[in-house]
Amino acid sequence: MSGAILFRDARIVCPAAGERRGDLLVVDGAIAPGETPADAHVIDCRGRILAPAIVDLGVGAIDRAACRAGGIVRVAPLPDQSPPLDEPGAVQRLALIGRPDLWIHPIAAATRGNAGADLAEMAVCLSAGARAVGTGRHWIADSGVMHRVLSYARDLDVVVMSHAEDAGLTGGAVATAGETATRLGLPAAPALAEALAVTRDLMLAEETGARLHLRQVTTAAAFALVRAAKARGVRVTCGITPAHLLLSDIAMSDFRTFAHLSPPLRDEGDRRAALAALADGTIDVLCSGHDPRGPEEKRLPFADSSVGAAGAATLLALGLGLVRDGIVTLERLFALLATAPARLLGLEAGTLAAGMPADLVLVDADAPWRIDADALPGIAGNTPFDGLPVQGRVAGLWKAGRAVG
Amino acid sequence: MPPSDHRPGTLIEGGAVFPHRHLTGIEGLEPHEITFLLDEAERWVDAAPGGPEKRLAGLTQINAFFENSTRTLLSFEIAGKRLGADVVNMHAAQSSVKKGETLIDTAMTLNAMRADVIVIRHMSSGAVRLIADKVDCPVLNAGDGRHEHPTQALLDALTIRRRLGGVANRRVVICGDLLHSRVARSNILALTALAAEVRVCAPSTLMPPAIERFGVTPFTDFDAAMEGADVVMMLRLQTERMAGGYVPSVREYHLRYGLTLDRLERRAPGALVMHPGPMNRGVEIDSAVADHVERSAITEQVAMGVAVRMACLDVLTRRRRGVEGWA
Questions:
Q1: B269 assigned ligand-binding residue
Q2: Is B22 one of the annotated binding-site residues?
Q3: Where is the Amidohydrolase-related domain (chain A) (predicted)?
Q4: B104 touches chain A (CB under 8 A)
Q5: Which residues of A are less than 8 Å from B213 in CB distance?
Q6: Out of 3.20.20.140, 1.10.357.10, 3.60.60.10, 3.40.630.30, which CATH number does the structure's domain A53-350+368-385 have?
Q7: Is the pTM of this model over 0.90?
Q8: DSSP string spanning B40-101?
């Protein structure tokens, strides 16, 4: 028994090597070049898409069922978990509990208790299995602290994931200032809260030489800043979730708490700017932002409800919609979903190059289905896309050559 | 996305003239529906005290107030009692009723008690709609957060209509803390629907974003806004917002936005003065204006409040009472 699997007749999509129709050989859990052993187990892909499985950067909760349905084999949980990921025990425990099907790469807290004041034990947490450090769902308001976080992280050559919203402007706000927020009578903050925070973090990253990843960038002004910073050679990357690409603040109408997100949904102009930034390469990572919240947290008046949306199970289908709409190519989609997040986390994964672990997703790209909040796999179905018809289902998922089921 | 069944404008129940199950806001009401409610209210304005028909006799009206209120609660209570309803008041102080599931639980409890109409005030925008979703009887919004306060807008429109002979084309200035005001939102929606020319006036720190999208003209200069006004409606500025958070001080606010008799005489000599109450005398409005016999309609607003609430209670319970044409 060679432990070999031959994926026959697949539409192989590799962000590094391009797209080709053919076979892919996996031996001992890794992608292998060369001859197919006679006893290889053959999986007939019948022309369906075979691509790197998704690496989901920055999730709020570990949700196996949602990840399995969504084609995700690796997740990087945010540091503001309970308990916070600021000590090695918590990091190590999390790093191990998912295997073998779901590999968890924790993002350690940048500051102790995620409080935004004292530096957390970054190196200790990295040695315990963390792959990045981050500010979680909140901005570090104190610029002096953020300066030290970035300087210190630079020494460790670890990426710092920042949530960029100026807390002075967003304090108490649950929406972006605009017609919808005014109509609903919701406390709102101007969209430029993001650009203000991005400006500061970019300047500090440039000054310190640190690697900065802006977890979610959602406004035209901030995309312009990131674009310019990249052109200057600042080591910055940024991400987004499908919600900010496909929905505007109108989705909050009727006080729909499933559309209560952080950062809040923006206006149509910013949404279009996000699509443009995705198309021109300014955005590096497409992530789910998966943050399942049950009815006890969502069936509340809008401002009292928790922020966050379930996204893991819908990420791939919504991403394939972006391909159909001509915003990105299929190869670029998987670069956004797998290659770039893997690189940020320093993982040997995210492409189909020889020697890579066989983290694979087989996709039935045309299979139609309707997103149903009540039937979504996972901890909770709080999706702002409830009722949306989509195309694309996971037909098979493998972690290091082992079928995830 | 599935349509939500409590959305104003959705044909669910009620008569053809007012096809709404609840009154959660002015948004979603057609101009003729607003006019219908005002016409219905007219009948109760001059009804002899003690004499009106007890249309709601045998029905239970629950006033569930999650936020402190004196005048609105009293007004709804009197309106219900004048119509013969059994009125029960539930004071749920903010401290005792926690947010969250408790709100839904409370709604379920009220529902289980088989109220025939529920009047709700809550400190969170959207809370009334959330409850309306969960109960079987009509729900009346008595103010939710900074979202809407529809009966206040109706009583203001009725006051204007009776004093000025109509609302259309009248120039109405709404001045004060628009940002936090549900009264302002509902009034803007109602008055623009009735084709009034609405001007809003506040310092930029208290002006809601994108307010011009509501068909109103924003001003920061009160004198300019008042030019040629038919109605000047002043909003209450809460004391905690006067200490530097949104305006520097009471006296500075009074200097720029206080309605003094002098200012009124200079800028809008014929204008009707309104205030939803309770007033901060000497802050947004001077006593000489508030108590002005010809100019102030403030006590009349209170009287119209009872009539409007009677009309709303009557109309919303017609289907329940099996009134012909409302089943």
A1: no
A2: no
A3: 139-404
A4: yes
A5: 179, 182
A6: 3.20.20.140
A7: yes
A8: HHHHHHSPPTT-S--TTTT-EEEEEESS--SHHHHHHHHHHHHTT-EEEEEE--TTTS-STH
